[in-house]
Design goal:
The chain is an alpha/beta fold. It is 38% helix and 16% strand. It is built from 13 helices and 14 strands. The radius of gyration is 58 Å and the shape is elongated. This is Deacetylase sirtuin-type domain-containing protein.
């Protein structure tokens, strides 16, 4: 059993961190559970103004403070014991106290813990809620409660009637009155309330009518007493009038295999409640579920170590606030959930649309860039290859380029076109004609006279015939 103490004012950083981790694990378990069984006690109604039983400000101590001089009431628990009907003074105190408690519960409003039970039902997570409370605050939030004996008489309709119950009242209903003789049930009226507040038990109208009928018929009066009305609650020491129905209903719930048990606002002191917790806890653990205990006062570890997994020491409403912070979606109404899902889907679609538009724009930009590059790119020139392959033919040599990219692949050259062999051109020298020879002249020497008078030869431009 892991204890999470949220009331201690002095916690180390390590303890705070462990508490946070454990609370997160509890919240996750609550959110994932599908068949949750809840057991509640008087502690869940304290914030509604209804005192619990065993705390310092509980009902037992309030009784002692209100009736300090009454020796017959040794402790507050005596007001909820069947033995009080043996003493007239104790019975008067019981009537007065129950009238006061009824007035408090009638004016009280459901707490956050009560609303949490309603949330579990709305989310189809609630298998059953067993309560030790008699204030009927669950009825104000439209939880189905109360066992109608007529609905459970037939075996064929038992399961259907039991499954229709949201809350099972283990200790009765303060908002109903019952006859101590014939067990006829009555609603509280203003007349009954005033009588009980004054310490007087009203007479049972059914028993009184039967008594008068037999009296006027001259019949013998059997029993000799007329029943008195008292709150329809189960006192310590008396048999539960619906014990068989409760036992059969509990077995039905155990067969449903609950996966979580949440115990809130009870100290688990009553024997019948102890047996119920052990039975349900065993079924939950067999399913792999967890048992959570929430209350201000701790449990005895020697007794509950093997039955309870988490012990959370705090106010019940404070625990519900922690759950709201950890798993807020659980506490939303169906309309709010639908609105949130719609908004999330719209945001998701908007993000997907933006992503698609970005991808389309990216592809369009890439295509435009590729088209622009193709239109402006220069025409590549064939680079000369260093390897030249020559192939001799009959007439001349054909030079072919060897492409290195073929990597040794066979390279074929086109065939040559056959042609007739041409003779080599002849060099013909032509002789000049006489007329052309006559025109050719060379310079002739002309005579010149020297100082001795001897003529000397000189070249002139006079034509000389050869």
């Amino acid at each position: 059993m892991i204890t999470i103490d949220l009331q201690s004012p002095r916690l180390t950083a390590e303890e705070l961190r462990n508490n946070q981790l454990n609370l997160h694990e509890i919240a996750k378990r609550v959110y994932k559970s599908k068949k949750t069984t809840v057991l509640t006690g008087a502690g869940i109604s304290c914030n509604a103004g209804i005192p619990d039983f065993r705390s310092s400000e509980g009902l037992y101590n309030l009784v002692k403070a209100k009736f300090p001089n009454t020796k017959s009431v040794v402790k507050g628990q005596d007001l909820f014991d069947i033995s009080l009907f043996r003493d007239e003074t104790s019975l008067q105190l019981f009537c007065t106290f129950m009238a006061s408690l009824y007035a408090s519960s009638r004016d009280a409003k459901p707490t956050e813990t009560h609303k949490f039970i309603k949330v579990l039902k709305e989310r189809s997570k609630l298998l059953r809620c067993y309560t030790q409370n008699i204030d009927c605050l669950e009825q104000q939030i439209n939880l189905n409660m109360g066992i109608n004996l007529e609905d459970f008489d037939a075996a064929r309709t038992f399961n259907q009637s039991w499954r229709s119950l949201d809350v099972v009242q283990l200790h009765g209903n303060l908002h109903k009155l019952a006859c101590t003789s014939c067990f006829e049930a009555y609603d509280w009226t203003e007349e009954y309330h005033q009588l009980l507040a004054g310490g007087v038990n009203p007479e049972c109208a059914k028993c009184h009518a039967k008594y008068i009928e037999r009296l006027y018929a001259g019949k013998r009066i059997t029993g000799g007493t007329i029943g008195r009305l008292r709150p329809n609650i189960v006192l310590y020491g008396e048999n539960h009038p619906q014990a068989e129905i409760l036992a059969q209903g509990l077995n039905t719930d155990l067969k449903s295999r609950p996966d979580m048990l949440i115990i809130m606002g009870t100290s688990l002191k009553v024997d019948g409640v102890k047996k119920l917790v052990r039975s349900v806890a065993s079924a939950v653990h067999s399913k792999g579920g967890k048992v959570i205990f929430v209350n201000k006062t701790p449990l005895s570890k020697s007794i509950w170590q093997d039955h309870i997994d988490y012990e959370v020491l705090c106010d019940c409403d404070h625990f519900i606030k922690i759950l709201k912070a950890e798993i807020p979606d659980l506490f939303l109404t169906q309309e709010q959930l639908d609105s949130k899902r719609l908004k999330m889907n719209q945001e998701k679609e908007a993000r997907a649309q933006i992503k698609r538009e970005k991808q389309a724009k990216k592809e369009a930009d890439a295509a435009a860039a590729a088209a622009l590059a193709a239109s402006t790119a220069p025409v590549p020139l064939l680079a000369p290859h260093p390897q030249i392959k020559t192939e001799p033919t009959d007439s001349f040599i054909i030079k072919t380029e060897v492409n290195d990219s073929f990597d040794g692949a066979e390279f074929f050259t086109p065939p040559t076109t056959p042609s007739k062999k041409r003779p080599a051109p002849k060099l013909i020298r032509r002789q000049a004609s006489p007329s052309k020879r006559a025109r050719s002249s060379v310079p002739t020497p002309e005579p010149s006279f020297t100082a001795e008078g001897t003529p000397a030869l000189s070249l002139s431009n006079s034509p000389v015939s050869l």
